[in-house]
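Researcher: Batch entry, complex prediction.
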Amino acid sequence: MCDVCGCNHINDTQETKIIKAKQSLLKSNENTAFINKEHFNDKGILAVNLMSSPGSGKTTLLERTVDALRKELSMGVLEGDIETEIDAERIRKKGIPAVQITTGGACHLESSLIHKGFHALEHQLNGKKLDILFIENVGNLVCPPFFELGEHIRVVLVSVPEGSDKPLKYPKAFKTSHVFIITKSDLVAHFDFDIEQVREHALSINPLLSIFVLSAKTGDGLEEWFDFIKKAKNNNVKD
Ligand SMILES: Nc1nc2c(ncn2[C@@H]2O[C@H](COP(=O)(O)OP(=O)(O)OP(=O)(O)O)[C@@H](O)[C@H]2O)c(=O)[nH]1
Ligand SMILES: [Mg+2]
Ligand SMILES: [Zn+2]
Ligand SMILES: [Zn+2]
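Model: Structure tokens for the complex:
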């Protein structure tokens, strides 16, 4: 459990101390996030942070994305997980450089881990230029939204089997994101998931969200996501 989401039975003095510690943690995270963004901007890299519950389909979508865009764009991935190199290996199998960041228990990525991971990735690149850096956050909708990483685009994903209530239950993830992706749309006939209602709920929290509905399994809706990423690269970051 992390400092943001941990809870204890505590008295008022302890609570004040904890609030101060959390504020200082978030401030220091913000400072390093700023440095990360400067690194990305200096090198003309678009950084995209993907957040969702475990198993929503982040890595699968990344696999499809790097397959589709590899001819046009140079991509790298930072994979956040509590344990294992499994996700980074999945990406490397596609011939795309990937660094696994294991948090050893913490349920979110922090900007200092991204800073270290980015320099490790650069090492793997051997001077090759990156167009896009994808960051897959630790599977969790609760605290990753509190931690800026220096990304340009923040994406929140919810898969159909998770249920329609996620935007209302986890508003911070939707408030702080630019993009909302509903994944596993191929499963909609098997679950009580109302796409239009979820869309409305998400927009009631954040009217500026760009929303995509897609299936990494059937390929439905993927083209729109690929186009979005290509346009974002062209518009947001000048080489
Ligand atoms: N039916 C269906 N299954 C999918 C789709 N996308 C991913 N899956 C499956 O969902 C499971 C989890 O996918 P991952 O891509 O590993 O999910 P993740 O969000 O990266 O998981 P963590 O890294 O553990 O948080 C796998 O069994 C995938 O094959 C989809 O569009 N449709
Ligand atoms: Mg994954
Ligand atoms: Zn956490
Ligand atoms: Zn640095």
